[in-house]
What does this fold into?
Amino acid sequence: MSVQAHIGTDQSARVPAPIGLLAELTHRCPLQCPYCSNPLALESVAGELSTEIWCDVLAQAAALGVLQLHLSGGEPTVRRDLEQIVAAAAKAGLYSNLITAAVLLTRDRLQTLAEAGLDHVQISIQDAQPGNADRIAHYQGAYAKKMEVAGWVRDLGLPLTINAPVHRQNIERLPAIIELAERVGARRLEVAHVQYYGWALQNRRALMPTREQVVRSADLVAEARERLKGILSIDFVAPDYYAARPKPCMGGWGRGIINVTPSGKVLPCHAAESIPDLTFANVRERSLREIWLASDAFQKFRGLEWMREPCRSCELREVDWGGCRCQALAFTGAAENADPACAKSAHHAAFTRVAEDESAAPAPDFIYRRPQKPNPAA
Amino acid sequence: MSEAGKSARVLIGPGSTPVLPRHIKLRHDQARDRWTILAPERVFSPDAIAVAVLHLCDGARTADAIAEELARSYNAPKAQILADVMAMLQDLSDKGVVQA
It folds into this structure.
């Protein structure tokens, strides 16, 4: 949907108003999924923003034009003040989406959250096969608990999305995953091929599917969408490595999405800290509006000025915005290069070959997502 | 609506009584000066006709009655309006924006 608005100010008359805020309330999480989107250097509880600051940030976001709030983490329900944060979102008129692993929720707490104004619940699942799901999450009983919570969500009349990250260790159960989403009464299912940044990049050899598996997953989703029209909508996030064109990462840098980390850093995307020469402003020090409009990190790759060839003269430069900066840096050594997922990138053949080689080799053990010392070599 | 187990696609007819479920928010978006539908992971931008239809979706009016009202307001033939309204409601129902 093409919702666009522009904030009229002197410094930046053409900067679109942001539509979504991804609020990473904490990096604490009981699960240890090896493809977690959090950075390798997880933030500690001591550095987390207070309730008051979060509530203020939500009011600022709404004033800036944000419509959708994604309450994420880590696991957002570890925060005892989640009810107050949800209530602040409702008061500000934000549409609130709880992105949860579900294992810590009780029925009473879910009801309290619903009464505070929560609009939507998204539960992640790791597989449709309980034993393998618990192994991937490294949490005994996770699958069973998630199914129980999904039932409460439905009973309380909240809309439910099931989010299923897929990779070589669960992709063969995709038909069962679709069936599960239908059975638990979800109206939406996200079949999201793992994106290889941070933890997933460390685990790429353990996660990368074959090209045949990827093609088959796309076919299965297309068939299910037709069959389940009006019952279950399915979003499909394709994997980059076998693509010919990159995804418009975050809908373009600094164009629609703001990410606030547990300690208040404001990022254009949740992986942006992997780009070492960026500095990030903090909501403790500057207003969200000022950060969105004028901070270095948001200005750095906004628009077209930063682009090199082949992006600069490409007719798709305002469609995909050059793809993902983090992936360009990680694979080609420069964040200004085209995303190697693009067939026009000089690095594309090598990029595809990595996926073909790694998916054909035996999968190593997972490196589970756990607090660790930052590893400069990673 | 929230029975356990699988559900079936809702088919809209002249007698359907559409309503926006609690979790669908039809709001005027101040920053962009337009109507917007907020839904799980979705933001829709309805056109003026869709907004007029959605404002009449109160769970009591039938699709037929909605077409009747719109035909009067827009001074247009009701049969044509009803066909358009039902097609629109079917699309909105498939997207989960209305239930009927």
Q: What stands out?
A: The radius of gyration of chain B is 14 Å. The mean pLDDT of chain B is 91. Chain B touches chain A through 31 residues (CB under 8 Å).
